[in-house]
Amino acid sequence: MARTSARPLDVPHPLRLPPSHPRYLEILELHRRAMHSGLDTYRDPDSGLQVLTAARLLANHRCCGCGCRHCPYGR
Asked: Between 43 and 61, where is the model more confident?
């Protein structure tokens, strides 16, 4: 099993969603709600694309190398 990042699961990778993003807090809330509800994804408010939650990515047991916003492995 790969080693996870020191970041909490509810904090996105700072290079993939910087705190300066204009919708940062909204996206954090969407991610939090999805994880709380046991959902694997939420819809990004800017692009409309589905975004995998950190919990779903953690269930993969390794980094996929795709640069996921909520990668729990810190890559």
From this structure: 43
pLDDT at 9 over 90: no
Spacing of C-alpha 15 from chain mean position = 12
Share of the chain above pLDDT 90, in %: 72
Q: Which two tokens stand for residue 61?
A: 């047991």
Give pTM, 2 decimals: 0.88
Task: Pick the closest to residue 32 from 47, 60, 51 (CA basis).
Answer: 51
* Closest C-alpha to 4, from 65, 62, 69: 62
DSSP class of residue 52 equals E
Q: Rounded to the nearest 5°, which phi and psi values hold at 51?
A: -120, 130
Q: Which amino acid is at 61?
A: H
